[in-house]
Amino acid sequence: MNRRRFLQTAIANTAVASAIGGGLFGAQGSAPAAMGTSPPQTSMGVVQYSFSASPYTHSAYEFLEYCHALGAGGIQIALDSEEPAYLEKLKRRTAELDMYLEAIVNLPQKDDTAGFERQVASARRAGALCLRSACLNGRRYETFTSLDDWRRFVALSHQRIALAVPILEKYRLPLGIENHKDWTADEMVALFEQHSSEFLGACLDTGNNISLLDAPMEVIEKLAPFAVTTHFKDMAVKDAPEGFLLSEVPLDQGVLDLNKVMNTIRTPRPRIRFNLEMITRDPLKIPCLTDRYWATFPDRDGIYLARTLRFVHDHPPPGPLPRISGLDQEARRGQEEDNVKQCLAFARQSLGFQKT
Question: Which residue from 74, 121, 187, 267 could staple onto 100, CB 3.0 to 4.6 Å apart?
């Protein structure tokens, strides 16, 4: 580490320690009057899901302050209140910090569009630039055991999206549906073409679809024209008895060519925002050599499997994949924060995400 980078890291660590450890938030999560020295800022945002052990994800306002202390340029988070005064306060503070806000929402249920509309209206009042959602909270190959189950999910997803589009158009707020280890890239393209709207597109996750045997750059090339927002990440892979292991790792420690990924997305979407999703967890098991895995993939064949396993074989990790099993809450929280800071520093110094 050279002297300049050492000083930058020391300043950032001091600022975060002062802001968080020194009482950034008072009783009931109140905001501070001042934060002292700020770390170098980036234009990259941070997704709520980058933290599972942090207490600051329970409040959009606190998460905004926390991510600013880490050097982020924006946040993507589920709003914790529909109270107009709170939302307006959040909007003001976002502007004061020269950051941006994206809101995570749930798609409407067929018998409750009012709940979805309240989420959209709240996001609009808070100044959110876009929305993010997903059709499935779990993973396709773990959730469904038969093709009929998957087809019922597909039909329901189409119903929910069809209900969402008129509300998005009413509030003129775009929604990005994430490729959340559910839809293949081709299935997502067909989804957006069927529900064509300028306010519906993708929350393009740069790593998830490796789990579905999609080639990572093909996913990015296919979904980039539809991208509303992003979950930007790097991935590591490793051989395993039933398939392979898949892990989020700090930027530039995985298998993705991040400059190529970034430029491929920006070509059709030059104003897109990049949001870091650095999930610190045990490796995910991708059981692509089991019968159950293939139950919902009638159109996939051995070519996808062979190509992916060859990709895994050709990209061995330099060491063990990261794990958090056995860590207490404080250690997990520290590891999460360290990983996010490391990613933001790399984004600023090596990918051009300096704050302008």
Answer: 74
Mean pLDDT of 3-26: 39
For the stretch 24-46, what's the b/e string if a residue is b when 16 or more beta carbons lie within 10 angstroms of its beta carbon?
A: bbeeeeeeeeebeeebbbbbbbb
Question: What was the pLDDT predicted at 34?
Answer: 34
**CA-based radius of gyration for the chain:** 20
Measure CA 14 to chain center: 27
Is there a contact between 181 and 153 (Cβ–Cβ < 8 Å)? no
Cβ neighbors of 129 (< 8 A, separation 6 or more) are 100, 101, 102, 273
The mean of the pLDDT values for the chain is: 91
Check: CB of residue 264 under 8 Å from CB of residue 220: yes
* CA atoms of 143 and 140, how far apart (whole Å): 5
Supply φ then ψ for residue 45, to 5 degrees. Answer: -90, 175
Burial (CB < 10 A; 0-12, 13-18, 19+), residue 48, is buried
- Work out the pLDDT band at 284, boundaries 50, 70, 90: very high
Query: Quick one: tokens of 294?
Result: 């293939």
Residues near 232 by beta carbon (within 8 Å), at least 6 away in sequence: 44, 206, 261, 262, 274, 275, 276, 277
Tell me the angle at which helices 84-96 and 60-70 cross, rounded to the nearest 10 degrees.
Answer: 10
> Within 10 A of 88 (CB to CB), how many other CB atoms are there?
13
